Amino acid sequence: MNSRSAPPIPFFTQASSFERCWPEIRRHLNALFDRGKYSHGRQVVELEKMLAAYTGAEHVLAVNSGTDALTLLLRAAGVRRGDEVVVPAFSFVATASSVALALAKPVFADIDPESYSLDPDSAEAAVTERTTAIMPTHLFWQLADMAGIGQVAARHNLTVVEDSAESIGMRWDGTHAGLLGKGGVLSFFPTKTLGALGDAGAIVTNDPDVADQAAILRHHGRMGRTTDHIAGISNLSGASGTNSKMDDIQACVLMGKLPHLDADIARRAVLAEAYTERLRAVPGVLRLPSLAKREVQSDPVFYVYVIEVERRDELVEHLTRQGIGTEVYYPTPLHLQPCFAELGYRRGDFPNAEAACEHTVALPFHHDLDEDTVDRVCEAIRTFYTGSRN
């Protein structure tokens, strides 16, 4: 098919999968409309139970976004005003901005170039007398080195909090992401492996004290139906609670989609292998997804399919002209973001993070994708680097 006449390939769509899940979603919505309570109601409680069963978490608290989940989790885990939290320089901005929103200071460290996650040695070098927590981010398809990070935390008496927003379904020796420290989070942003129709998130933890504090914080600092707001300056990180309750309509969507999650994850694995097989020998492609070599192997779940390439920005322009959508995760490392300029970091401080920002690109990837579309994307990449067609 001529590329000019071929239909565009979006980076993400959930049209077909949503249609497949619609009967179950509609059933939950009908129950919601019959009941008439649309915020923090019975559907949210039911979703929390389903997520607890899926992840093995003792406590799940649904909130209105992954960013709020991170911020509230940090506060509930004991991060206080002025504390330092070590985070990776390569991640979505919420990884670091959540620390700032918890009134603490993000301190950056470099990443392991294989996993794109926080490098334990670099993280340890960033620890100071004010450091109280370390927050690895599980990116793209695998967990961070939780054994190495756990050792750093133990040597310096640090709390481990996981930015596990992308990692539903990922497990480390059988333990679900987010449950390897004080707690973690899930994001249900529409593009996620389990996506809502808008913003939504959750905190997962096995620590009852963290769960209790997070439950108070997400509801204006109050417990249950009381009107006494108990979360304040004296007993938490320096601010009162907030309004971060999940919308029950989003809970209905997620409950309708959750039973299909394992099949969707399996489909993503097939598509990832199809991409890898077709791109393995393409010149200009520097690195394909792989699992970091560790004593404990984590279960991969492909949230996105990210490769490293030469002339990344030119390739993106070429694919755009072919009607092929892409995303760059992430064009600027966190330590060079303008919002963190006052922290004093400079280019060259974290070379692995900076290299990833220069070379990575995410290709169209979702469980509605078919292998003919994968063929077309890979052929467009090969053509860019070779200047010829088969």
Automatic annotation (TrEMBL):
Keyword Acyltransferase in record: no
Protein family: Belongs to the DegT/DnrJ/EryC1 family.
Transmembrane domains' residue ranges: none
Highest taxon above the source species: Bacteria
InterPro entries: DegT/StrS_aminotransferase (IPR000653), PyrdxlP-dep_Trfase (IPR015424), PyrdxlP-dep_Trfase_major (IPR015421), PyrdxlP-dep_Trfase_small (IPR015422)
Descriptive protein name: dTDP-4-amino-4,6-dideoxygalactose transaminase
Keywords: Pyridoxal phosphate
A Pfam family assignment: DegT_DnrJ_EryC1
Record's keyword annotation contains Nucleotidyltransferase: no
